[in-house]
């Protein structure tokens, strides 16, 4: 099917038309909508926001029985609570230095990074609506000339932290309109709530028109479904609302509908026996066959975070409340499932090693009938005595023990991980520094698959050979997630060390998309240069470390009502 498009003259009135060479109707949007939705951007703010923003600390908590009133987007009603949360965010014993006292010298590459980020801006009818994935003229564009939803998140956070929210607002509005279009792959109609993986602005100089061309997976290599896009969209909407205090965007009926559509899609009932979300391979940042099908940690953590953000953003009206009830129930089941079955530490590893199999009925200990022989050799060496992590995947007779960075960081930020688990993840990163950080942060997953396993699991993917790209490559973009998670867990010095490693090479190497090799010493064999999220990820990490009050826009406090009731192991003691 032809991609869904938003079309219209660059200036003047906007008319609907049929896309050339296709019978697909175009997405109509009229000027009044545009001028209403896209406000003029403010001049660039180069002054770093220095003040402690109380809002950033006045955390919003979800209520397990949503109130039946119009108490929209509940901010803390008690300003002192903000400072209680401050204690929770920074561990006073561990934090050294004063974040805003000149302790952090501005690094010379920061200015270059901002310039590069601004060069990546994509405009639609004179308004910035996103950033291009990579500005690299030396290699084939493929889809790197598009605005990817997931790639835009660090760009958006950088702009929010720099006091430039307009581009984020434009992006959120543009994508919610793209969501509401009918999308098909061949003759199959996709769910209403599906958000695009990416979009592109096409300029027609002859007709003086601009068109938005969106991809929902129907053009993507392997026709992969962007399950993460909708979750990132909700998380970003909450970040925008939290950082600007502007609730009017989230309150718009179109935006409320957008949230509900995403929720309806992922909360629909089916044959599932687990509260986790069943996905095909390539459904997230790892958008190729990599054996992440099933219940990948990246999606489960984003799902959890999006559910929590949605519960904060939904209006308490009839439709909102109906959705909220389902969210609350799912959150409960999901946090129990993840904290119990995805968590691995030395005690749990030992328990699995000794598992009995073929147990039937409710009394089964080995509920998923995992065969101990399926434990890979590497995991015994990798698991430190102190520390733990959420494993890659859990389903019948399948535990994927690989470490995935994004899912574990999001688990910390969303408070899917308990404080003890967050601490254990940090301990693991510290004790497995060589493996996970090496010479360039940060391994997207660990370890790589090689030879026979690589052949079987990736389908002989030449881009995903061992220790390259998604298969054990090192991705600089992940630094922002690590930094946010470290600050939240009270361990900012870990992030500082990683950032110093990255900034010694990133500019010199031309902001590569990823690095190869066990230690990440080599620029990735097919890595794009000027990869926007490598640039933005670095800036966000720097800004957060310098002013940790920024963390509030991307982090959720622990919900006391979701505290786990059981005691599992040494690194997870209550
Ligand atoms: C690659 C990455 C994907 C990213 C895209 C654009 O396909 O795997 O996560 O969104 O490039 O940068």
Please give a structural write-up.
The chain has 20 helices and 14 strands. It has 574 residues and is an alpha+beta fold. The N terminus and C terminus are likely disordered. The protein starts with a strand and ends in a 28-residue tail after the last helix. Alpha-D-glucopyranose binds next to α5. One of its GO terms (biological process) is sucrose catabolic process. It catalyses: Hydrolysis of terminal non-reducing beta-D-fructofuranoside residues in beta-D-fructofuranosides.
Question: Could you name the key traits of this structure?
Answer:
carbohydrate metabolism, 14 strands, globular, hydrolase, 574 residues, alpha+beta, endo-alpha-N-acetylgalactosaminidase activity, binds alpha-D-glucopyranose, 39% helix, Glyco_hydro_100, 4-stranded antiparallel beta sheet
Calculate Rg over CA atoms.
23 Å
Strand content: 5-15%
Show unreliable segments.
Answer: 1-103, 565-574
Shape: globular
Structural class: alpha+beta
Estimate percent helicity: 25-40%
Mean pLDDT: 83
Report on the biggest sheet. 4 strands, antiparallel
Helix count, DSSP H or I runs of 4 or more residues: 20
Distance between the termini: 53 Å
Bound molecules: alpha-D-glucopyranose
- Strand segment count: 14
Query: Spatial order of the strands in the main sheet?
Result: 1-8-7-4
């Amino acid at each position: 099917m032809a991609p869904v498009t938003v079309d219209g003259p660059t200036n003047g009135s906007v008319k609907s038309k049929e896309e050339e060479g296709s019978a697909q109707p175009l997405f109509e949007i009229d000027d009044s909508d545009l001028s209403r939705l896209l406000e003029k951007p403010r001049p660039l703010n180069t002054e770093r926001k220095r003040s402690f923003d109380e809002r950033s600390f006045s955390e919003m908590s979800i209520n397990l029985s949503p109130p039946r009133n119009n108490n929209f987007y509940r901010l803390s009603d008690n300003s002192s609570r903000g400072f209680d949360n401050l204690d929770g965010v920074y561990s006073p014993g561990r934090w050294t230095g004063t974040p805003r006292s000149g302790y952090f010298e501005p690094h010379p590459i920061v200015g270059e990074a901002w310039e590069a980020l601004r060069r990546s801006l994509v405009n639609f009818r004179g308004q910035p609506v996103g950033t291009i994935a990579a500005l690299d003229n030396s290699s084939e564009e493929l889809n790197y000339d598009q605005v990817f939803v997931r790639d835009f998140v660090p760009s958006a956070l950088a702009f929010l932290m720099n006091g430039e929210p307009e581009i984020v607002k434009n992006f959120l509005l543009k994508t919610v309109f793209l969501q509401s279009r009918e999308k098909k792959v061949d003759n199959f109609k996709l769910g209403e709530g599906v958000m695009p993986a990416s979009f592109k602005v096409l300029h027609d100089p002859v007709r003086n028109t601009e068109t938005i061309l969106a991809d929902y997976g129907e053009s993507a290599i392997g026709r992969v479904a962007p399950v993460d896009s909708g979750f990132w969209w909700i998380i970003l909407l909450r970040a925008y609302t939290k950082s600007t205090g502007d609730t009017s965007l989230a309150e718009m009926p179109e935006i409320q509908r957008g949230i509900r559509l995403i929720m309806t899609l992922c909360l629909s009932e089916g044959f599932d026996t687990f509260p986790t979300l069943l996905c095909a391979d390539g459904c997230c940042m790892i958008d190729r066959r990599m054996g992440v099908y099933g219940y990948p940690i990246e999606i489960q953590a984003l799902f959890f975070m999006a559910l929590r953000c949605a519960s904060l953003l939904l209006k308490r009206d009839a439709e909102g409340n109906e959705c909220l009830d389902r969210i609350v129930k799912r959150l409960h089941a999901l946090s129990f499932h993840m904290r119990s079955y995805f968590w691995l530490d030395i005690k749990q590893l030992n328990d699995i090693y000794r598992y009995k199999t073929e147990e039937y009925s409710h009394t089964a200990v080995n509920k998923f009938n995992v065969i101990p022989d399926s434990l890979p050799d590497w995991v015994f060496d990798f698991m430190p005595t102190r520390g733990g992590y959420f494993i890659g995947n859990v389903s019948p007779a399948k535990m994927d023990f690989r470490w995935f960075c994004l899912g574990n960081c999001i688990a910390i930020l969303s408070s899917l991980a308990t404080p003890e688990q967050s601490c254990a993840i940090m301990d693991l990163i510290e004790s497995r520094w060589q493996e996970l950080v090496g010479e360039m942060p940060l391994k997207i997953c660990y370890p790589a698959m090689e030879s026979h396993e690589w052949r079987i699991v990736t389908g002989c993917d030449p881009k995903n050979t061992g220790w390259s790209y998604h298969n054990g490559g090192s991705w600089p973009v992940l630094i922002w997630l690590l930094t946010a998670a470290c600050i939240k867990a009270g361990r900012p010095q870990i992030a500082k060390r990683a950032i110093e490693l990255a900034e010694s090479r990133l500019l010199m190497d031309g902001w590569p998309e990823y690095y190869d090799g066990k230690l990440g010493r080599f620029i990735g064999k097919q890595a794009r240069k000027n990869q926007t999220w490598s640039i933005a990820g670095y800036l966000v990490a720097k800004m957060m470390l310098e002013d940790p009050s920024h963390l509030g826009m991307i982090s959720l406090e622990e919900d006391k009502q979701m505290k786990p009731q059981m005691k599992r192991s040494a690194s997870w003691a209550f």
